[in-house]
Amino acid sequence: MTYVDISNISVEVFVTVLLFLLIIAPLFSLAILRFFQGRPKAGFTLIATGIIIYFVLQLVGKLFF
């Protein structure tokens, strides 16, 4: 059995992945659900929100890190 060494992961990468998993991925999942429910306007709104949050996270990452 082998172990993966995660001690070299920077804080910036950890926070980025954490925020992606907590914010952006659920938005895209809900968007797909809304498309299947026949609510395309809500689906496109959720996708647009996810993209905007992604760019905000990139901006914050460039400013502070």
What can you see in these coordinates?
This is DUF1538 domain-containing protein. Keywords: Membrane, Transmembrane, Transmembrane helix. The chain crosses the membrane at residues 13-36, 43-61. This protein starts with 10 loop residues before the first helix and ends with a helix. It has one domain (9-62). 78% of the residues lie in helices and 0% in strands. It is built from two helices and no strands. The mean pLDDT is 87. With 65 residues, the chain is an all-alpha fold. It is flat, with a radius of gyration of 16 Å. It has helices spanning 11-36, 40-64.
Summarize the structure.
This protein has helices at residues 11-36, 40-64. It has 65 residues and is mainly α.
Order of SSEs: HH
Q: Please state the overall shape, judged from the principal axes of the Cα atoms.
A: flat
Helix content: over 70%
Output the radius of gyration. Answer: 16 Å
The chain-level mean pLDDT equals: 87
How many runs of DSSP E, i.e. beta strands?
A: 0
Distance between the termini: 36 Å
| Low-pLDDT sequence parts | none
Which structural class best describes the helix and strand composition?
Answer: mainly alpha
Largest sheet: none
User: What share of residues are in beta strands?
Assistant: under 5%
Protein name: DUF1538 domain-containing protein
Keywords: Membrane, Transmembrane, Transmembrane helix
Transmembrane segments: 13-36, 43-61
Organism: Paenibacillus rhizosphaerae
